[in-house]
Structure formats: C-alpha cells, structure tokens
Amino acid sequence: MNAHIPSRKFGLAVAQIGGIDLADSRASVVRRLLDMLREAHGRGAGFVVFPELALTTFFPRYWMPLEDVEARYFEKKMPNADVQPLFDEARRLGVGFYLGYAELTPEGKRYNTSILVDKSANIVGKYRKIHLPGHDDHKAGAPFQHLEKKYFDVGEDTWKVWNMDGIRTGMCLCNDRRWPETWRVMGLQSAELIVLGYNTPAHNIHWPEPVHLRMQSHLLSMQSGAYQNCVWAAAAGKTGFEDGFHLIGGSVIVSPAGEIVAQAATEEDEVITATIDLAMGENFRKNIFDFARHRRPEHYRLIVDRVGAGEAI
Ligand code: ING
After folding, report:
1. Scanning 58, 135, 254, 303, which has its CA 20 to 30 A from the CA of 16?
2. What was the pLDDT predicted at 3?
3. What totals of helices (H) and strands (E) does the chain contain, helices first?
4. Is 224 part of any domain?
5. 313 within a domain of the structure (yes/no)
6. Catalytic-role residue among 150, 172, 174, 282
7. Residue 52 falls in the annotated catalytic set
8. pLDDT of the residue at 1
9. Rounded CA gap, 197 and 220, in Å?
10. Domain span at 19
11. How many domains does the chain have?
C-alpha cells in the first residue's frame, strides 16, 4: 500500500494567444499578455505559461534577408523596454511565468528561446530550442515557409530542470514535445512540471496531411510525454490566423496520468487554469515508472549512438 503522499496543490495557468499579425507592435502584444496575466492571477494561478515566439508573428513562415529578420523579430536584451511591463506586473502580482521569444546574442547567435521567470520576476532559467523543424532553403511552390533551420541556431545546452518557486520545473519548445528524448532527459532530472510554448501551422506544406491530425499529434505528444515521465505538462499555443495563415489551438494542461485536465476551446487569447496536485506524479514515480528499478539503459544504446534509422542489429 502506498504511504499517503501529502498533497502539494498549485494554481497553474496557460495563456494561449490568438494571431499576431505583421502589423502588430510588441506593445500591443504585451498588453494582451498583461490582460491574460491578470486574468490568470484572478483565477488563482501562481504561474502562467505563454507561447513560443510570443511577442511577434511566426516570422519563420516568411523568406526575408537575415538582417531584416534580426532587426524586426529578435530581442537583443531580456527583459527590455517592450516586455518590462510584463515583468513589473508579474512581480506586483507575485506570479511566475514562461515566455518564448527570438533571442539575438551579443555574439550574433540567433536562438528560439524560452525563459522561466519566478514570482519575484527573476529569470531562473533559459532554454534554447534543440529540435528545429522545417528547412533552410526557399521552397518556391509552398504556400508559406518554415525557416526555423535558417533563422535559428541549435541550442548548445540540453534540457534542464530548475527550482521554480519550489517546483522542479523543466521547459522545452514546440517541436521538442514530439521527441520522447526531450521528456525523458527532464524526467531523469526528477521534473515535476514541464512547460512549453508552440506555434503549429494547421497546414502541412510537405504532404496533404488531414488537418485534424495536427491536433491529434500535438495532444498525443503532450499526453504521452507527461504520462511516461510522471509530470504535469502545460502547453501554450500561438493560435488562430496571422495575416491569413492558420495555427492550431489546443493549449492544454495534462496530468501525470496523461489526462487532459484543461484545454482551450478557442483559437483566440484564452486563459485556461487548473489546480494541480504535484503529489500526483509521486504515485507513478514510485510504481510503474520507478526509473531506478525498471529502466535498463544497457539495452538503450542505439538511442544515443545512432542519429538516423539504420540497419537491424
Ligand atoms: N512548429 C511545429 C511543431 O512541431 C511541425 C512544426 C508541425 C512539425 C507538425 C511537425 C509536424 O509543432 C514548431 N514551431 O516547431
């Protein structure tokens, strides 16, 4: 019989944002993020997840000269004048947050980045996206591009887990959620909560994928990642239409059982919340996914040694 594990309840929010057009200023976007931060706080949240690239339109859909992309879409400092109001209000309300943005470093490196900010508005952790989807060439016949491999460098540091106001919190970005390795690296660091933002085009430019499968694979990735690593998981989407280009909705909060406990109903700015009990993961970690007792890394070598699929061994 499992010794009773004392509950550790916590108010978690996901702030899904609707489309951001090319014409939308960062100031107008930050006003929308502030509105959702306040709503989340009003609904008892101590932490809010904002989307990937939350300050601008999903610019990797456009082929542009690098100097223009860097000038228009990348943040040279974080925080900066545009986002300082978000940090100030979060500190005033005592709410932590995850925020995704495009980062340009002083050395000229470009990353698809996310930060964890605690309830005193200190940046606790930074992550630079590892799994960059898409391509770096111009696809002339495509209705839009997906140029993350052109505009971003691959992050040099693996996924980490930070103490975020007493919660062992890991983070990743968008395409990362589709790869089980992402979740396991954080699961092996005893994560309790994994948060991420995403921008997922509804239309697949590579083959006529039925649209409903975009939502299916997003939810499947979230639910399996959470369940197989005994973590609470939260995903904030940038959604709806951006200058006519469609991004899926489906922002969610998923329990360590892999169950969706909250899901966005729209493709607009929408806050979803849940009171999560961090103790829930313990039951799964002590039994079915007691990694120390059950995992057999000596049989997993292929996962690390091989990049692409190869011959049977
Ligand atoms: N977007 C998409 C994502 O992983 C994608 C790209 C969609 C890849 C569907 C494969 C299938 O959700 C980002 N930004 O990674």
Report:
1. 135
2. 63
3. 9, 14
4. yes
5. no
6. 174
7. yes
8. 44
9. 16
10. 11-305
11. 1
Which ligand 1 atom lies nearest to the CA of residue 53?
A: 14
Q: Locate 296 and state its tokens.
A: 């057999």
| Average pLDDT, consecutive stretches of 10 residues, N- to C-terminus, the chain (313 residues) | 81 98 98 98 98 98 97 98 98 98 98 98 98 97 96 98 96 98 98 98 95 98 98 98 98 98 98 98 96 98 98 97
**Does residue 199's CB lie within 6 angstroms of at least one atom of ligand 1?**
yes
Residues 6+ apart with CB under 8 A from 183: 177, 194, 225, 226, 228, 229, 231
With contact defined as beta carbons under 8 Å apart, do 175 and 238 qualify? no
* Ligand 1 pocket check for 205: Cβ under 6 Å: no
The closest residue, in CA terms, to atom 2 on ligand 1 is 200
3-state class (DSSP) for residue 64: coil
Strands 96-104 and 252-254: unpaired
The CATH number linked to 99 is 3.60.110.10
Amino acid at 72: R
Q: 61: number of CA atoms within 13 Å, CB side?
A: 23
Q: Does residue 6 form part of some domain?
A: no
Probe target for ligand 1 pocket from 59, 152, 175, 247, with the most ligand atoms within 8 Å of CB: 175
**Residue owning tokens 């997922």:** 200
Residue 253, strand partner residues: 234, 262
Q: Taking each helix axis from N to C terminus, what angle separates 180-187 and 212-228, rounded to the nearest 10 degrees?
A: 20
Q: What is the pLDDT of residue 4?
A: 83
- Is any atom of ligand 1 closer than 6 Å to the C-beta of 179? no
Q: Does residue 66 form part of some domain? A: yes
pTM score of the predicted model: 0.97
